[in-house]
Design a protein that fits this description.
- The complex is a heterodimer of chains A (260) and B (358).
- Chain A is an alpha/beta fold and 260 residues long.
- Helices cover 32% and strands 25% of the residues of chain A.
- Chain A is built from 9 helices and 12 strands.
- In chain A, a hairpin with a 2-residue loop joins strand 4 and strand 5.
- Chain A is globular, with a radius of gyration of 19 Å.
- Chain A starts with a strand and ends with a strand.
- Chain B has 358 residues and is mostly helical.
- Chain B has one domain: ABC transporter involved in vitamin B12 uptake, BtuC (Orthogonal Bundle), CATH 1.10.3470.10.
- In chain B, strands 1-2 form a two-stranded antiparallel sheet.
- The radius of gyration of chain B is 21 Å and the shape is globular.
- The chains are: A alpha/beta (260), B mainly alpha (358).
- Chain B: Belongs to the binding-protein-dependent transport system permease family. FecCD subfamily.
- Chain B: Its main location: membrane.
- Chain B: This is Iron chelate uptake ABC transporter family permease subunit.
């Protein structure tokens, strides 16, 4: 099957020292792909390029076989959503109004509302468990709820592909898993998800496919069990460790060695 | 800080209720009821202030006579007051106030900065310098509005270059703006006092902003620019609203963040320049109108239409006060708005500083 989203010879960054160099990646429909790698490896830059936020220096990104630079920005946004790392919540906005902003790509100058908006927004609020907080101001929510409100916004966008840039950063561990379970649910419902995550154990537990990046290149790509090995973690992160199976899910778990 | 008050004051719709929608043929727009209510109220207030402007004082046209005079059935004196003395001045005040309100709403929205207002960052002063130069040094060569536009654009470019980070950093934007405003005002003083010493009367207009002795051509200028800007404002309203959530998200939603910002800044520069070319750099209407509009509507987003209405009301009311108060006679309206707006600017600086934005 041809990939729903793919990068071909992608070089990203500025000037003589690109962040990502000549990268190829194909994402099949229905995959939950997680991109991991050390700080500065180019994973966020890659995700933004996939989401049409960064312009490549060379190469191209294809969505259903079409170059996204050749498509209208709104047409891309109707099929693929991106949740960036630090979006800005407008002052005084309610949860429902924030979710409604995800409908922007479905609107035109004269048609800024459609009956499908209502269904999409209500569904997004239900999926994120925020239906009861619809009229609450985003500014007064807890960190975990606020991040759910942003997820509701990209869900209201009603796209088949969802790109998430470190969606669990700044949340406590319970809220991190809470959110990851939500993504797993969305994945089971058929969405294609590409996420950048920091935590290898979380990535391995939830991803169907792990992409390990280092120095702007993909160094390993496959099922989590094959990618997360002690040798590779030491090589890429410089962290001597054992990799043991997670006692609950049997996915790989990284146990760092103590420094002697 | 208004968060808790607005929450208790606003009547709550049932949870998850959809907003009402205005649907007409191919047009479908969501409606914010409180904003519509505010708009109607503001229109009534602008009309009331306008009627008061025409009716009050020594030469005022009595309210009962207004309909007749406006429809052209007035006596010679009344027709003179409406057609020459107060009518043009009023029309300029409404249009200029609306233009300043819109310019401020656009600029504050795309800079995501309540202090990122054309009057605070030196656009108004730049336009004033350009207008003074065109009117006094090159009379008849460069039309005054073109001079104002060039001055505003130059000020904008210098501010963006001086910050080193474009329009992103609120603190740098304000500091650069203060510097540019000071230079522009110095230039205006220089032009007026050295090159046009005999025209001292025009000084206050180009330095402070004034609505004294306006003619219909001024009114046509500002209203024509407003009318021309309208389709662009309508087209930008949606993307500007999305832009408030950050460039990356706006791009991902298909709103093309930098194109939107460029468009909004250009529009804001044009509207500010038009306002300055007919009334001089009137301070703090651009700064305050959008923020009053937001508090009135309780709605996030740039509140463009309400900002225009609040701007119109502020300027008409300020000019009415200047014309009718015993001490204000002959005082440029810009001095009056500066007095009130300066206090607000101080409050805002302290608030943003406490929030750690600056």
């Amino acid at each position: 099957m041809s990939p729903v989203l793919s990068a071909e010879g992608l070089t990203l960054g500025y000037g003589a020292d690109p962040v990502v160099r000549d990268l190829d990646l194909g994402v099949a429909e229905g995959e939950f792909t997680v991109i991991v790698g050390p700080n500065g490896c180019g994973k966020s830059t890659l995700l933004k390029a996939l989401g049409r936020v960064n312009k490549p220096m060379s190469g191209r990104v294809l969505l259903n076989g079409q170059d996204i630079r050749g498509l209208r920005a709104k047409a891309v946004a109707r099929r693929m959503a991106l949740l960036p790392q630090s979006p800005v919540a407008p002052e005084g906005i309610t949860v429902r109004a924030l979710a409604a902003r995800g409908r922007f790509p479905h609107h035109t100058l004269v048609r800024q509302w459609s009956p499908r908006d209502e269904t999409a927004i209500s569904r997004a609020l239900e999926l994120t468990g925020l239906a009861g907080l619809a009229d609450t101001q985003v500014g007064s929510l807890s960190g975990g709820q606020r991040q759910r409100a942003w997820v509701a916004m990209v869900l209201a966008q009603d796209t088949g592909v969802l790109l998430l840039d470190e969606p669990t950063t700044f949340l406590d561990i319970a809220h991190q898993y809470d959110l990851l379970e939500l993504f797993a649910d969305l994945h089971r419902q058929g969405r294609t998800i590409v996420a950048v995550l920091h935590d290898l154990a979380q990535a391995a537990r939830f991803a169907t496919r792990l992409v390990l990046m280092d120095g702007g290149r993909v160094v390993a790509d496959g099922p989590p069990g094959q990618v997360v090995t002690a040798a590779l973690v030491e090589e890429v992160f410089g962290l001597p460790c054992d990799v043991v199976p997670d006692p609950r899910t049997s996915t790989p778990l990284v146990i760092p060695h103590e420094r002697s | 800080m208004t968060r808790s008050t607005t929450r208790t004051r606003r009547p709550r719709p049932p949870r998850g209720a959809a907003p009402p929608v205005l649907a007409l043929g191919p047009v479908a727009l969501p409606v914010h009821p409180r904003s519509v209510l505010c708009a109607v109220l503001l229109l009534v207030l602008v009309a009331a202030a306008a009627a008061a402007t025409l009716a009050m004082g020594r030469l005022g046209i009595p309210l009962t006579r207004l309909p007749a005079v406006v429809t052209g059935a007035g006596e010679a004196t009344e027709a003179f007051v409406l057609g020459r003395l107060r009518g043009p001045r009023l029309a300029v005040a409404v249009g200029t106030g609306a233009a300043l309100g819109l310019a401020g709403a656009l600029f504050q929205s795309v800079t995501r900065n309540p202090l990122g207002s054309p009057d605070v960052i030196g656009l108004g002063a730049g336009a004033g310098a350009g207008a003074a130069f065109a009117a006094l040094v090159l009379p008849g060569v460069v039309p005054v509005p073109m001079g104002a536009l060039a001055g505003a654009a130059l000020a904008m470019a210098v501010v963006a270059a001086a910050t080193g980070t474009g329009l992103r950093h609120p603190g740098r934007l304000i500091v650069a703006g203060i510097g540019v405003a000071a230079m522009a005002q110095a230039f205006t003083h220089f032009v007026v006092s050295v090159m046009a010493r005999d025209q001292a009367g025009v000084l206050s207009a180009y330095v402070n902003g004034s609505l004294g002795a306006r003619a219909w051509e001024h009114a046509w200028t500002i209203w024509a620019v407003l009318l021309l800007a309208l389709p662009f404002v309508a087209a930008l309203a949606g993307p500007v609203t999305v832009n408030e959530m950050g460039d990356e998200l706006a791009d991902a939603l298909g709103a093309r963040a930098s194109a939107t910002r460029t468009g909004a800044v250009v529009l804001s520069v044009v509207l500010s320049a038009a306002a300055v070319s007919v009334a001089g750099p009137i301070a703090f209407v651009s700064l305050t109108a959008p923020q009053i509009a937001r508090r009135l509507s309780g709605a996030p987003g740039p509140n463009l239409a309400l900002s225009a209405l609040v701007g119109a009301l502020l300027l008409v009311a300020a000019d009415l006060a200047v014309q009718q108060s015993p001490v204000g006679d002959g005082l440029p309206v810009g001095i009056f708005t500066m007095g009130f707006g300066g206090v607000y600017l101080g409050y805002l600086l302290v608030r943003e500083w406490r929030k750690g934005v600056l």
